[in-house]
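Lecture notes, unit on protein representations.

Consider one protein chain, 404 amino acids long.
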Amino acid sequence: MDLSPDRPLPAGIDTPCFLIDEEELSANLDRFLAALGARWPRSVTAYSLKANALPWLLAYFRDRGLHAEAASDDEYRLALAMGYPHERIIYNGPCKTRETFFDAVTGGAFVNLDSGQELLWLKELDHPGSGPFRVGIRANIDLEARCPGEFGLGTEGSRFGFCHENGELGNAVAFIRGLKRIRLEGLHLHLSSRTRSLAVYRTLAGAAGEIAAAHSLDLSFVNLGGGFFGGLPDKPSFDEYFREIAAELGRRFDPRETTLVVEPGTSLVSSPFSYVTEVTDVKRTVAATFAVTDGSRVHIDPLMRKSGYFFEVLRRKPPAGPPLPRQVISGFTCMEFDRHFVLRDHPELSVGDRIVYHRTGGYTLCLSPMFIKHFPAVAVRRGKEWTVVRGRPAAEDFIRIHSA
């Protein structure tokens, strides 16, 4: 997409802003669905709302036939408000409420149990004249023992789901089997990993078969979550992920009878997003040359963990001087560590030059704080047409949202 400084942005939108390339979004989704369908035709794809809950995106995926994956009562209500029917919502996570739990189970959503409290709520639904209702259960496995070096917190282990190794999962399965109107039909296995390697997904698929055999589970669906890479060079492709999953899952489950559920998020939405900023000032100190921009690291790296970005520098006019060994690209906030990166051996930037950050659609809109400036606007490009799908909130919007 042409984002050069001499080309105006869409009407009604200024920098900093997020821009979405709908063609790339569609291509990502098409590649994902084609790879999944080729390896495991009986499947369900649910978009993970926590990755980016922009209403335009939720409507886009809804209209393409995807399910919604909600991890809280707020996300569950958002999915319903966006027109997802109960049977196209997967309800995960430890922060469900009793009200939304009852609504989801009785309405036919895919509900994966995550806590002992949810078992007690399930028991409340087990009374004459109710059901039958189906549920799934989230299994907690020791990923670090099975794939050394992969789990982000090492030997501290995951806090989600019911532990398979110590018998907690078996106890929960026995509890559900003691209920007359509840059917345990699904198994949910999702764990974050350091590398998102193929070995992790082989392990999850293998653990699903191991758990099903250990507890004689007759499952209609197996949910392996998300976390896939999406289109990065030297990283696994969608087809490679599903090839490995299908090979391992097929040892225990029949692809004609068992539904494979996956919950992609960033792998679909990261690459179609770009974040556009402009240089507003150039400062020279005894320590460095600073190119100050109207963007901020809090918008594209809210956890302040990234060590690098996919970016390009777009100049308003040709450079006039020799390259500088070091320019610090910084943001607009008052925090000294609001610095994006160091631009090395590059001609000095000028006011009005643009720095565009690519692949910025994953988690950024959900985690970005409204710190000093309000949320950036978002526009979508369809062909040559631009549509603003989220405007920058005005002061009146802020007051209305934050008033009783």
